[in-house]
Amino acid sequence: MANHYASSLLRTLRNRISIDTVIVDMLRLDVRPDDTLLRFRCPLCDRFHTATNPKTNLARCFDCEKNFNPIDMVIAVTHCSFVDAVERLKNRSHWMG
After folding, report:
1. CA–CA separation, 97 vs 85, rounded Å?
2. Is residue 20 part of a domain?
């Protein structure tokens, strides 16, 4: 595993792998979809006062006031290191749009 990643790779992982795909398909979090938003159980506070924003590719917990990009979400859910999260997402690169 690499200890240093090109900023272009990190930008690609953060922006081109859908946060909804990471939440639903990769991490299989408990979700409550409604008509317009994907609500998920926050990995930090365990509440559903959350939403994802496809325009920014971020997930947000309004109770914790925490934003998650795909890398942050993998770290929060799996309790892995940054390097491990990047490697896990790289292995799922076929999800990039």
Report:
1. 19
2. no
What's the angle, vertex CA 79, arms to CA 74 and CA 49, rounded to 5?
Answer: 60
Given this model, what pLDDT does residue 33 score? Answer: 78
> 62: which 2 tokens?
């309004």
**Residue 6 counted as domain residue:** no
Q: Which domain holds residue 56?
A: 29-92
pLDDT at position 35 is 83
Residue 8's identity, in one-letter code, is S
Q: Does the global pTM surpass 0.85?
A: yes
Does residue 11 sit within a domain? no
Average pLDDT, the chain: 93
Please tell me the distance from the alpha carbon of residue 89 to that of residue 71, in angstroms, as a whole number.
Answer: 8
Domain count, the chain: 1
Euclidean distance between CA atoms 70 and 13, whole angstroms:
7
| Domain CATH for 70 | 3.90.580.10
Residue 72 amino acid letter: D
